[in-house]
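Hi support team,

I'm filing this because I wasn't sure whether my run with flavin-adenine dinucleotide finished correctly. The job status page said complete, but I'd like someone to confirm that the output block is well-formed before I use it downstream. Pasting the exact inputs I used:
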Amino acid sequence: MNYDFIIIGAGPCGIFTALEIKKLQPSSSILILEKGNSIKRRICPKRKTDICVGCKPCNITTGFAGAGAYSDGKLSLSPDVGGNLPKYLGYSKTQKLIDYVDDIYLKFGADKKIFGVDKDDEIREIRKKAISGNLKLVECPIRHMGTEEGYNIYSRIEEHLIDIGVDLSFKNPVKDLILNEDKKIIGVVADKEYYSKKVVASVGRDGSDWLRGICLKHGIEVETGDIDIGVRVETRNEIMEELNEAMYESKLIYYSQTFDDKVRTFCANPGGEVSTEYYDNDLAVVNGHSYKSEDLKSENTNFALLVTKHFTKPFNSPIEYGTHIAQLGNMLSGNRVLVQRYGDFKRGRRTTEERLHRNNIVPTLKDAVPGDLSLVLPFRILKSIDEMIEALDNVVPGIASDETLLYGVEVKFYSNRVVVDEYFQSNIEGLYVGGDGAGITRGLMQASVNGVVLGRILTKKGSY
Ligand SMILES: Cc1cc2nc3c(=O)[nH]c(=O)nc-3n(C[C@H](O)[C@H](O)[C@H](O)COP(=O)(O)OP(=O)(O)OC[C@H]3O[C@@H](n4cnc5c(N)ncnc54)[C@H](O)[C@@H]3O)c2cc1C
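And here is everything the job wrote out:
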């Protein structure tokens, strides 16, 4: 069981690492160990029954293509969005690599259309309104694969990796690393021991808890990062029409008047559905996606409103902090996602089934439980979200309506940043990290780019 390279996790970062290694060094042996299923076996029963049956591990977040398989498949084509890679690689290098990876997605069948590049007048008008609401508009061209087309594209990539001789081992989570007496990596422990002097840990958000434990156990250096906590907003498509048509996904940033906290819109899904993400510890958090096909579009648009919190010494456990808040929501809802009308949120009262039925907006997350987010979110987060919604009303008139839906809790667990050198190598020789799980990226494109860079570094071929 000796390999030239072992990759832990078959998300976009792991997949693109393998693709690039094979391109530059075709004869090398690569093993990808993945906790979840192959893409064909990633079936979520909830898609038919509307009720989560608690698959272990969750088929939405684990398996080939990781969190990408059932994502909305939006490829952000600007270095400004989706992670910290420009900090590591520089802005123009990151842009070049984005173009390179975009080409690969196109070759595997991504739609040629790019949103946000041909509507200058409309975008000028949106920016004008954003300024009047104290919001910063970030422009980012988007290629939208869509949930079902993204799934097909990743299915083709899985077949291609098998064809070019990459070993894929599914339902085989890595439990530990094997280090020699010099503290250099020599392999990993999964169902059995596998040996390699070069190991990439690209375990995504789902694996960030595991990675944290491994870092503690083996003395791998980490630094405390930020955490993003907030809600998912859902409204009717007609309210969001102008933004959706001009930009598909509009990125707006606000600094709250009360706390000066950063609040941003994230992951907009026109005609999409709100979804639940389950983590290993049964934690239910909210997310969203949308299909490409017109037949599968809903009447609603959803997007996240996230408040960024940076903690200072002595506190160094932002993941636990976020988990704790999400658990509080789960406690009140019987392990589901809570939903509240904005009008009830503002007036400090619970949303009930009866109040929900007064709405034009029908929730797309069918098993969400009407409740009260003020029993869950800290005042600072609540206040920042409230201010942001009022500010957004300048750009999207109608978003501050009583019937806008807020789902909670949305938490982004990319806060555990592994300290790496310029080659994405940790302080353990031979252990490289990348993607969302290492706190380096936050989206499909940058996770994939990180994979390409790792492939070039590991083979010592090609400049990055
Ligand atoms: C519902 C949803 C919608 C999204 N929509 C978008 C979008 O439209 N655009 C965008 O840019 N981003 C989107 N994202 C985020 C995007 O999916 C992630 O940023 C991206 O997948 C990160 O890639 P990664 O390779 O770092 O990690 P992941 O994709 O999370 O992959 C990591 C893999 O590692 C595996 N793993 C974890 N621990 C272990 C272990 N111990 N042993 C073996 N395997 C392990 C996991 O099972 C997983 O398959 C979305 C995410 C979700 C959940």
